[in-house]
Amino acid sequence: DDDHAYDRARRAVDRGEALPIATLLERLKTQVPGEVVGVEFEREHGRWVYEFKVIDSKGRLLEVYVDAHSGEILSMEED
User: What's the pTM value of the predicted model, to 2 decimals?
Assistant: First the structure.
């Protein structure tokens, strides 16, 4: 549920476990140009991960997984 994901993200940011989404969106724009059309926030393998759905300049839908604490792109795949 999106409301729960938002609450989880807010609490993780408050605890210093995740960067604010605005910070990550700014970084993402420079690394993966395109339009962000969706965001998920979940715990994977013991860490918080943002999954950004991005439509790139070629019209492809990409899933970009970002470590919420470091901002590092973990993986990217075409959906």
Answer: 0.89
